Amino acid sequence: MNTLYKNILLGALALCVAACATGKNAFDKGNYNTALDRAVKRLQSNPNNKKAQDVLIDGYSVASEFHLKRIQQFKRSQNDFKWESIYREYTQLNNYYRDIQRCPSCMSLVSPKEYFTEQEEAASSAAEVQVTIGKESLALNTIETARQAYSHFEMALRFNNNIVGIDSLLTQARQIGTVRVLIEPIPIHSRNLKLTNEYLENKMFEYLDAYSRDRFVQFFSALESEQRGIEPDHILSLDFDDFVLGQAEIVSKTVEIKRDSVVVGEYTDKDGNKFDVYNTVKADFTSNEKTLYSAGVLNFEIRDAYTNKVLTQRKLRSEDIWRHSWASFNGDSRALDKEEIQMSKRKELPPPDPQTLFISFIDRVYGQVEGNIRQFYRNTEL
């Protein structure tokens, strides 16, 4: 590439960069927000930049006219949510005003106009529309329309956080829009073992209290439902179809272990020199492993409280294995390695009690319970 061509290319590139920095390219494409933003920034650092001055003068005039025309169009519209669009247009005009106010050299070129009163009035009208539609939805008195009402009331607060009675409306909408779920007591079918479901129920309700905090769903025990007079919409039941607990198996294995070249003594020759005596040593090593196998199928079911129709049902299968190993040996301990020595020092432990085994098994299956609850009530976020 020759020098002349390089200079032409560099010059064109410099012009392009300068145009971008002053906002001219953005202005030519009708991107007034970007154009004015770049022009103001360039004039803050270089008040005498002619291109940036031109962009600011022409850009502010054209952009203001553009947004004001859109406001008039929206006002003629029959769209219920037109005030939100009008609010956004006034917001952009006021953004121009703030940006130019922060640039002294810009103020000598244009006289920006503020529309803060108009913006506030548009916000108030937008909030009023959201409240009106929310009240209409709430009056239908269904779970779905109450949730829609809640969304409208929340949207209203984005435009006006000083609405009379809005807290009461939000509370009412949440109450009507909330699904109330009764958790039935979890039966434990065991003739020979005294087991309690308290651990599972406590763990569940701790999770469900946190889960329902920001959702249109609440969970109650049978006692709470009775004491507070709560009529449930859904009934969640957990029932063990079948389970085995602590099915024991012991596996023992004996092997002969040999180790060569082990020092077994000392030899002294006629001159009094001492030498190690090497030989092969042996030991019968018996390893033992006890396993307690627990497994079961938990029936997860959610029913409609009014029709008793099953809404969802899952068979949750899980298992848990408790293991303990120990060993013994007959013979020379020098035949064993460090791991075998350590294992031979262990003694057979008594198995955990049934309740401990049951809790360990519950921990295995519990994650599936949470997952199914999250899946079924996934569309209940506030």
Protein described:
Residues 1-21 form the signal peptide. The chain folds into three domains: 3-114, no CATH class; 124-177; 183-376. It has 13 helices and five strands. The protein has helices at residues 3-22, 24-28, 32-45, 50-76, 82-101, 104-107, 116-139, 143-159, 166-177, 198-211, 222-228, 338-345, 354-376; strands at residues 179-183, 217-221, 234-268, 274-304, 310-331. The chain has a five-stranded mixed β-sheet. Strand 1 (179-183), helix 10 and strand 2 form a beta-alpha-beta unit. The two termini are 64 Å apart.
- Relative strand content: 25-35%
Q: Describe the main β-sheet briefly.
A: 5 strands, mixed
Mean pLDDT: 88
Shape: elongated
Low-confidence stretches: 4-20
Please provide the ordered H/E string of secondary-structure elements: HHHHHHHHHEHEHEEEHH
Task: Please give the share of residues in helix.
Answer: 40-55%
Distance N terminus to C terminus? 64 Å
Rg calc: 40 Å
Structural class: alpha/beta
Continuous helix count: 13
Determine the oligomeric state from the structure: single chain
Total discrete domains: 3
Number-wise, the strands total 5
- The strand line-up of the biggest sheet is 2-1-3-4-5
